[in-house]
Amino acid sequence: MHSICIFCGSRRGRSPAPVEAAARIGRHLGQQGRRLVFGGGQVGLMGVTADAALAAGGEVIGVIPRHLMRREVAHQGLSSLEVVEDMLTRKARMIELADGLLTLPGGLGSLDELLEVMTWTQLGELDCPLALFNQEGYYDPLLAQFDRAVEAGFMDAEHRDMIEVLTSLDQVIDWLDGDARPLASGEG
Questions:
Q1: Which domain holds residue 111?
Q2: What confidence tens digit (pLDDT) does each residue in 102-114 have?
Q3: Is 45 within the bounds of a domain?
Q4: How far apart are CA 58 and CA 28, in angstroms?
């Protein structure tokens, strides 16, 4: 994977662990010569990840809807910032630019993005590696709901298992490096 889309919070959260993880992940992507695709905001875990990737010499592409330019404080120091009309276009464009998707802790937007890519994968409209960083058990209730949906017959186990659940930062780095190759000039 040479281009990774990261879905994550527009807030930092209360624990320092997600901030530290976002910085390490961004730095790792930059050092490995891989492209980060993200929601384009300067705030929260989005900004932390982007800043770390940029500081490490990485290419960072942000995609932000016009109406969130002020609310999420669009990041002005990116390699590229694409302004789109709405959230649906944002998600589609972020996914189009990436060949691997990683979800870090976040709120409703991150949950929406995660569930949408899982749905697209289930329907055969998306075929790329998906991972969820369940840092400090943050997504345990969601994973329990997936199990409940399987038990109740509303979801197949294969669809629950299509996303790789990672519980440590080392696992995230290993996942990122699993099929890693640097971005060759002219690719994109």
A1: 3-177
A2: 999 999 999 999 9
A3: yes
A4: 9
Q: Which residues 6+ apart lie within 8 Å of 104 measured at CB?
A: 6, 7, 8, 9, 18, 21, 22, 25, 45, 49, 110, 133, 135
- Kindly tell me if the per-residue pLDDT of 118 is higher than 80: yes
Q: Is residue 184 part of a domain?
A: no
Residues 6+ apart with CB under 8 A from 149: 155, 160
Which pLDDT score, from 0 to 100, does residue 33 have?
93
Give the pLDDT score at 188.
Answer: 44
Residue 154 lies in a domain: yes
> How are strands ordered across the β-sheet holding 3-7?
80-84, 60-65, 35-38, 3-7, 100-103, 130-133, 164-166
Q: Most distant CA pair in the chain: distance in Å? A: 49
Number of domains in the chain: 1
List Cβ neighbours of 179 (8 Å cut-off, separation of 6 or more): 1, 100, 129
Give the CATH number for residue 33.
Answer: 3.40.50.450
* Structural domain contains residue 185: no
- DSSP secondary structure string for all residues of 73-136: TB-SSSSEEEEESSHHHHHHHHHHH-SEEEE-S-SHHHHHHHHHHHHHHHTTS--S-EEEE-GG
